[in-house]
Every structure is written in C-alpha cells, then in structure tokens.
Design brief:
Elements: E1 6-7, H1 8-18, E2 23-26, H2 33-45, E3 51-54, H3 58-72, E4 76-80, H4 84-87, H5 90-99, E5 103-109, H6 125-129, E6 135-139, H7 145-157, E7 163-169, H8 170-174, E8 176-177, H9 199-211, E9 215-219, H10 222-225, H11 229-238, E10 243-245, E11 260-262, H12 270-278, E12 281-285, E13 303-308, E14 322-325, H13 328-337, H14 345-354, H15 370-380, E15 386-389, H16 393-401, E16 410-411, H17 422-432, E17 438-443, H18 444-448, H19 454-459, E18 465-470, H20 475-484, E19 529-533, H21 539-548, E20 553-558
Parallel strand pairs: 2-3, 2-4, 4-5, 5-7, 6-7, 9-10, 9-12, 10-11, 12-13, 13-14, 15-16, 15-17, 17-18, 18-20, 19-20
Antiparallel strand pairs: 1-8
Helix pairs in contact: 1-2, 1-7, 3-5, 3-17, 11-13, 15-16, 15-21
Length: about 575
C-alpha cells in the first residue's frame, strides 16, 4: 500500500468522497483556493469527487445545503472562504441549528501563524459559530484534518441532528502528510454515550395515553429526522389518538388521514388548536415546546408527556409529568410491539367535526385570494410536489392549504424564520430529489432577499416553478401593524418611493408600483420564463400553464393586499382566545 504524501486539500476530497458526499454548495475565495484547485484537478482527471454548485452568495449556498438536507435526510455540505464568506454563513448555520438540520459548513481560515494578528479576512469563526452550531472545529494541523472531517460528518446526524462547522487554515490545505497512520493524529472522541432505552418509562407513557379521555399527540420535526412517519401513522391508528404535526413535521401524516389535525400554534388549524385546548393529555414526540405552539396556559389542567432524543429539551420550557429520552423510532417500535391499543371513539368523533374546518374556508373578492393560489397548486400537483417557501404570510398559507402527502416534501425555515430562505433552499432540494415536481411559493419581500440565486437556478437549468404572492408589502409585519400597532405601514410598504406621502397609512389595492418588475427578470436571467396573474378568473389557467412548462418559471401573482393569516393566536394570549375571522 502506498504511503505517498497527500496535501490537506487531497485529504479533504478523499474523505468527502469516501463519505458519499454528492454535492458541495458554495462560493470561492482566497482562503479556500487550494480546495478548489484540487477539485479542478480531480475533475480534469475524471476522478470521483463531489460536484460543486456555485451559488451567487455564501448565504445562498448555506440555505441550498439546508434544502438538500431537509429533502434527502442526508448531510448537506456548504463551503465558503474566511472572513465575510464565513460570516455570510451565519444565518444558514443558525437556521439549521434551530430546526435540527444535518449540515456541514466548511470555511477557510487564514494561515495558522496569522491567527490573532487581525490578518486580511480573518474572523474568529469558531467563536461566532459556537452558540449557533452543534459543534465546531478549527484545524491548524494537517494531521488532524481527516479525523475532524469524519467526526464532524457523523456528528451532524448522530443523536439530535444539527449543523457542524469545520474551519480549516489555508496552510493546512497546502501542507502534506503521509498516508501512513503515523502521519495522522488520533481522533479525539469527546461525545456523550447514548442513553439506554427505558421500557418502564415507555410503558408508563403508553398507559397514560390509553387511560386519557382526550389525548393528543404533538408530533415534531424529530419524526421526519427519524424516518418514523409510517410508524407514527400506525401508532395513531393503534391508539386511536389525533395528531398535530408541527410546522417542521408537516407531511409526516397525509392530509386525508382522519387522525391528522394539521399544524398547531399561532397560525395553526382550528382542529389542532381546539384539540390542544381541550386535551387532558398531550404527548410530544420528537419536538420542542416552541413558544409559537406552547402559548400562554398551554399546559394548564393537562398531563404532559415528552419523548425526545435530546435530554436538554426535557422540562426546558414546559414541565412534564412523564418523559423518556430515546430515539423516536425506538419508542414507536416498542409501542407497536407491545400489542397494546386504545379506544377514544367519542374524542375522535368530536375531532372529525372540527376537521370540517381544515383548512379554514375563506371568502372571495375582486382580488386573488392567496389561499386559492395554494389550493390550486396543491390540486394540480396532486399534493405531491416538493414545496419550498420563504418566510411570511405566504409561508403560513402554504402550511395551511397545501395538502401534504409525504415526509420531506415541506422545506421551510421554522425556528429562525429566515426571509430569503426559499429560492436557494429550492435549489438544494432539486439536487436532493429531482423526481418530484418542485414548487417555490414566496412573498415579494422574502423573494428579493436572495434574488441573486436566480443565476444559480438558470445556470443549472433547474425546472423550478416559482409563485410570488405579491401584495406589495412585508405582509406578516403589515398584518401585525394593522392588528396590534395602529396600522403604521411606512417600513413595510414595498411599493413606497420618494414620491409617496410619508404619512400614508392607506392599504390601497390599486397601488401596485413594481419594485422590481418581476416579469422583467426574464431579460436578466436567460431561460427564465415569467408571467403575471392579476385576476381571479385567470388564476387556475395561469397556474396550470406555469406548471406545464419544462424549465424554470417565475409567476408574479397579484394577491389581495388586505388578506390576513387566520386563525391567529396573538402573542401573550391563550388557545381559547384564537382569532378565527
């Protein structure tokens, strides 16, 4: 066996190739040039290596890695240079951390001897990513590079998934070391041993579930991460219990399943919030008690049970009566193997009545209703598209009105609520799963925050169908302003320019100044088709036309500017104070 020396850059690609990494989403720069030189050499030699997807900004690359990970369940990998390249990754790292997305963020760093000298494009990447990542590393010795990369990749998926950051000094990428084990440093394993499954605690939870009169399961994103959607459905049917699927768990149960209550919380469905309001037992599976769901009085008068792989989530915000730290798949497998069952027929009958308002009916007007856009897209894609969104009102309408059928088809920023997430995440989702239709529903505000990734889209000929629900506002903030802050719109009106009255507080449906003119983007990005839909009578035909196009399409849909996301539980209020109209 040859023990010929390898550079750090060669080790980098040897390891990633061995780990099965298919794609690197990134942007280049001085501190990662050695990595790109090595990649180019391998491409010319036709040697195996991940494919590099050049994004137009590092933040876009990070979100693309997230989209890949959310859709595939595999580790998404992003790469950027030091300094501003690394800091531009801060938002996608934090986004992945909040939603527990298995991702690996690779950043270049100044040469090891220059660290601490305020060198050009030097930033303490380990320091600023420490609170927003699962773990991070600074590699200053080429002999540490292989074990760090392997451990980082494993750590991204081990236990509760999350982002791991590896910061690699430029001299490490250039340095050589022998393939011989003597040329490598030994791995430093410093992670907790897994907690053994406790069948006694599991059985206590199952007994409480069977004994309850009005139990509800609150299924979180851990169901998706654990690939436990099928087991969750069997569990719900066996124990005759309704299930709310949180924002990050949408698609875990098909929309049509009678046990499925949809999304709970601030903009949750009526049956989900009614059920949580009236429950006597809430069993949380693989999810934290987020403040948008666990609203004021959430646990009052109820027993709370919690199963989660992360012990730090137990009793963190909501005190539990019963809990189990375990892999969700192990718990569901145990529950189904016991032969136990339950009967909550009266409770499910009440649930069935509430489900008649799922999704909530909405009115008609002279303007396109955003809910109608989502419903028509859902119908014409048979609920089978990979659905990506930005963040804002359009995101909540998508969560409420798209009829999800499978896990990993919902790609959206949850805990961090990152505007600009949608377009780059959709690019990553395409590389993860090109077999399903790919749809991005975005808002005119969110879409503009990473609009430059249209270049990545057309360069890679990705057949993404983009529907921008254009209301000329930062819609969700406008809704809060109107409902709780006296209707001040100065900072939220996207049609405003220097000619406008600075005191204008009107919500004028006819004011449709286009900044930018989205249909004009076809002249900027080759092969991108654009169209505009302005009237309800043209909506179905226009959506169908866009979905039938073979390449990328951007549809500018002028929706009702006054429409609000309803239901809504306002901050500081209880579920029984939900606004329904």
């Amino acid at each position: 066996m040859s023990h010929a020396a390898r550079t750090g850059a060669a080790i980098f690609f040897d390891v990633l190739t061995d780990l099965g990494v298919e794609y690197l989403f990134g942007h280049t720069g001085g501190a990662v040039i050695p990595l790109h030189v090595e990649l180019n050499r391998r491409m010319r030699r036709r040697d195996p290596a991940p494919k590099f997807i050049l994004c137009r900004q590092e933040g876009g690359a990070g979100h693309a890695a997230e989209g890949y990970a959310r859709t595939s369940g595999r580790v998404g990998v992003a790469i950027a240079t030091s300094g501003p390249g690394a800091t531009n990754l801060a938002t996608p790292i934090a986004d992945a951390h909040k939603d527990s997305i298995p991702t690996l963020f690779i950043t270049g760093q100044v040469p090891s001897a220059a660290i601490g000298t305020d060198a050009f494009q030097e930033v303490d990447t380990v320091g600023f990513t420490r609170p927003i990542s699962k773990h991070n590393y600074l590699v200053k010795d080429v002999r540490d590079l292989e074990w760090v990369l392997r451990e980082a990749y494993a750590l991204a998926t081990r236990g509760r998934p999350g982002p791991v950051v590896v910061d690699i000094c430029k001299d490490v990428q250039l340095a050589e070391t022998s393939r011989d084990p003597s040329g490598q440093n030994a791995p430093r394993i410093r992670h907790r041993e897994p907690i053994a499954f406790d069948p006694v605690k599991a059985d206590a939870i199952l007994a409480a579930l069977a004994a309850a009169e009005r139990p509800v399961v609150k299924a979180g994103g851990g169901v998706i991460h654990a690939n436990a959607a099928a087991a969750l459905r069997s569990f719900a049917e066996r124990f005759a219990v309704p299930v709310t699927t949180t924002f990050n768990a949408l698609g875990a149960l098909p929309f049509e399943l009678p046990h499925n209550l949809g999304m709970p919380g601030m903009h949750g469905t009526i049956p989900a919030n009614y059920a949580l309001r009236d429950a006597d037992l809430i069993l949380s599976l693989g999810g934290r008690f987020d403040d948008r769901v666990a609203v004021k009085g959430f646990a009052t008068g109820k027993r709370i049970a919690h199963v989660d792989i992360d012990p730090s989530e137990i009793d963190k915000t909501i005190a539990t009566d019963l809990h189990l730290v375990a892999e969700l798949g192990d718990f569901l497998e145990h529950a189904l193997s016991t032969g136990q069952a339950a009967d909550h027929a009266d409770w499910l009958a009440r649930i069935a009545q509430w489900r008649e308002q799922m999704p909530k009916p909405y009115g008609r007007s002279d303007y396109i209703k955003p809910q109608a856009v989502v419903e028509i897209i859902s119908e014409l894609t048979a609920g089978d598209a990979t659905l990506v969104t930005g963040v804002g009102q359009h995101q909540m309408w998508s969560a409420q009105y798209y009829r999800f059928r499978r896990p990993r088809q919902w790609v959206s920023s949850g805990g961090l609520g990152t505007m600009g997430f949608g377009l780059p995440a959709a690019i990553g989702a395409w590389f993860a799963d090109p077999a399903h239709p790919l749809v991005l529903i975005d808002g005119d505000g969110s879409f503009q925050m990473n609009i430059q990734e249209l270049g990545t889209l057309v360069a890679n000929r990705i057949p993404l169908k983009i529907f921008v629900l254009n209301n000329s506002f930062l819609g969700m903030v406008r809704q809060w302003e109107d409902m709780m802050d006296e209707g001040h719109h100065y900072e939220t009106c996207l049609a405003r320019d220097a000619s406008c009255d600075p005191d204008c507080m009107d919500l004028d449906q006819t004011c449709r100044r286009q900044i930018p003119n989205l249909t004009g983007l076809k002249y900027v990005y080759p092969r991108l088709k654009t169209q505009r839909i302005k009237h309800p009578k043209d909506l179905r035909e226009g959506v169908a036309q866009a979905l039938a196009e073979p390449g990328p399409v951007l549809v500018d849909v002028w929706v009702d500017k006054a429409e609000n996301v309803i239901p809504m539980v306002r901050p500081g209020h209880r579920l029984d104070q939900m606004i329904e109209s």
